[in-house]
Amino acid sequence: MTIFNNNNKAPSINAKQNLAADIVEDSNPTDNTEFHTIVSQRMNRRTVLKGGTGLTAAAFFGALPLTGCGNDDSSSNNGNGGGAKGDLAAVPASGDLTRPEALSFTAVAHSTAQQMSVAEGYKAEMILPLGTPLIAGVEDWKDNREQSAESFEQRMGDNHDGMWFFGKDGSQYNPKASDSGLLVMNHEYVNSDKLSPFGYKIIEDKNAAPIFQEQRLASDVRREVNCHGVAVVEMQRRTDGKGYEMVLGSKFNRRITSATEAEITGPVAGSDLLKTKYDPTGTKTRGINNNCGAGLSPWGTYLTTEENFLGVFGRGQDASKLTDAQNYGRERYGAKEDFASWGYKWHTPPAKDAKIMDEFARWDMTAVGATALDDYRNGFNTFGYITEIDPFDPTAAPRKRSALGRFAHENCAFAPVAEGKPVVFYMGDDSRGEYIYKFVSKANWSNSDIGRGLSAGDKYMNDGTLYVAIFNADGSGQWRPLTHGQNGLDTTNTVLPFNDQAEVLVFARAAADVLGATKMDRPEWVSVSPVTGEVYVTLTNNKYRGTRDDQPVDSANPRSYDNRGKARGNDNGHIIRWAEKAGDHAATSFDWDIYLFAAPSDLSAENLSGLDNNNDLSSPDGLYFDPRGVLWIQTDDGAYTDTTNCMLLAALPGKVNDGAIKTTSAGQSTRLGMQANEQNIKRFFVGPEGCEVTGITMTPDFKTLFINIQHPGNAWGAASDGGTPRSATVMITKEDGDVILAESFAKPATT
Question: Which residues have a Cβ under 8 Å from the Cβ of 222 and sit 6 or more positions away?
C-alpha cells in the first residue's frame, strides 16, 4: 500500500509542503477494544496445544495433497469442504506438486545496492516499466517526461502494485493455461515530482478559497489521473520457453484509469448518497482510484481495490450545509473541512482548462450547490470499493461491488470454493485502528460459473452478508453482520443513523464501530492457505506502540524499543492468522493466534521469532499463498533500510496455536507461532534501493513469478543512465526453465 515513510515520498512534493514522515489515515474516534488489549488478556490464559513447539511444518503437511487438510482439533478443522471439482477455481494451476517439507534454495543476502538481487539459479528481469506503450504508434518513454497526458491512456501507469496472471486459451479464460495469458495489474499512485516534465508545479491564486490557493497544472493532473488505475497486458511465452513478452497492440491490452466510467452495483446502487451532478441516478461514477492490492475471483475476473482514495479529494468549508450525521460520515473517512488532499490537488486546476465535464471539479467534495445534484459532494462516496474487471471483455465497464463495503481496501482474497457452498472473501481496512472484514455470498458456488465474467460477479458479489471481526480474549473470535436493522444498525443510532442497507455499506466503518469491532493496526494483505484453509493478514508496523496512551505495549505488540536511535515504537510489524470453526469459511466464529513477528536479527531481545541474517525482515505488507501452499511475504519498510532494501521471502507456515509463550525485554508474555528457521522461511529476492516490493502472481505451471517494484531510487528502470527512475514489473524465472522452487520439491514419479 502507499505509505509515505523514510523511503517513500508523498505523491506530490514541493518546497511549500511539509508532509509528515508518514501519511496514514487515523480517523477512528471510537473506544472499541484495541486488538493489543485482547491479545494481552488472551496470551496469559492460553496453554500450548498438544504436540508442543517442536513440530515442524513437515510434520503437519509433508504428505498432504495440494488442497484440503485434516486437523487434530475439531474446533478448527481446516478442510476445504469440497473435492477436486471445487478445487479447480481455487487452485488455478497445472502439475501435481505438493507443498515442500523444507526450503532448499540459498538465501539472498542483505543488500542496499541500486540493483535487485535474486536467489542463485534464478533470473530477474525488469519488464513493463512506467510509460511503456501498449499499442503501436505510441512513442517510447523518454526520460525528459514530455509524453502527453493523453498518451497515458495507452501506456503503463505508475507505481505498479497488486496483479494477477490469467491463463488464456484462444480468447477465453483457462485457469490451467500458461503459454499465453493476460497480466493484469494495479497502478496505485504517482510520484508527481518525477512524472511531470516540470516537476511538481503550482500556480498561485491569491483570490481563491483556501484549498484552491495552490493550483496544479491541468496537464499534470490529467497525466496523473491517467497513470492511476489498472493495466491489462497480453503476454506470450518466449520461444525459448523462459519468461514472457508483451503482445504489443493486442485487442486485450487496455488501461482503466481514474477517468474511466465505472458502474456501481449491489445495495448501494441508486442510493441518494451516490447521486452527483454527473450521474443523478447514483449508479455510475468516473474512475477507479488508488488501487493497491488485488485478487482473483473464483470465476476468473480481476478484483482490484480502492485504498487511499481520500488522498485525491479536496473539501472546503461546508459543514454548515450538512447534517451532523453527514459531516460525521465524511470525517469517519478522514475528510474534514479544509482538507486539501495529500498533495495531489486534482480539484485545483482552473475550470477553463477542463476538456470534459467538470474534469477537475469532480474531485472537490465541498457542498456548494442547493442539492447534491448541483455539485460533487457525493463523489467521495463513489470510491472505496472492491471493483471487478473482466480482462477478457475489453468493452465491459468496471463494476464496483458495494455489497463488500466501503473502506480503504488493501486487497481481497477468496477462500477455496466448494460446490453448493457460499463464496467467501476476506478484506482488511488499511488505516490505524481499523477493522478486518469478510463477505459471504447469498448464492452458493457452482463450477459452471467459471469463465462467466461479470455476470458471475453479479450473482456472487451483489447479494450477501458483510461481517466484521471481533477478537475475544480467550482466543476465540466472532464475525458480526453489518446488516441494517440488526444490532443497532438503524435510525436509533445517535451518531450516524442508518436508514437502510446502503447507508450501512457506504459508512461501513461507522457501522462496524457500532458492532464493537476490534481495532487493528492497519490490516493489509490477506491470503488464505490452500493447505490449511487458515487466513493470514499482515499488520505492517505501528510507530506509536508504547508511546501513546491508547496503544500501550502488550502481549500482542510487546516491543517498544529504540531501534538504532529512532523513536520508540514497534517499527517492524507482524502477521496474524485465524482458523474458521470446523473449516467452514461461512462460519461466524473462529480461533486465532499470531504467526510471525518481524525484526532485525541483531535486535536479539526483540527478535521473538528467532530470525537470522537469512530470513529477518521488517514491515511485512504483500502476502500471497501460491497454489502449492508456499507463503510469499513482501516488505514495505523504512525501519531496516539502512541494512537492507525491501524484499520477498518464501515461507512454510505451520498452523494456528503451533508456537510457544515467550517474555520480551519489556516483561510482556506473548504466544508466537512456530519458530523461524532456514527450512521454513528464507529470503528469496531483494529489491533496488528505495523501493517497495509489492504485487505478486505466478503462472499456472509455476515456472514464472511476477512481482512489482514501486518508487525505486536512483535511476532504476530509467531509459538512460541517470534518467528518471520508474516503477516496473520484475519477471523471475529459473535459469534452467524449471518450476520456481523446484529445488525444494520432490519430482513426480514417472511410469
Answer: 149, 150, 355, 359
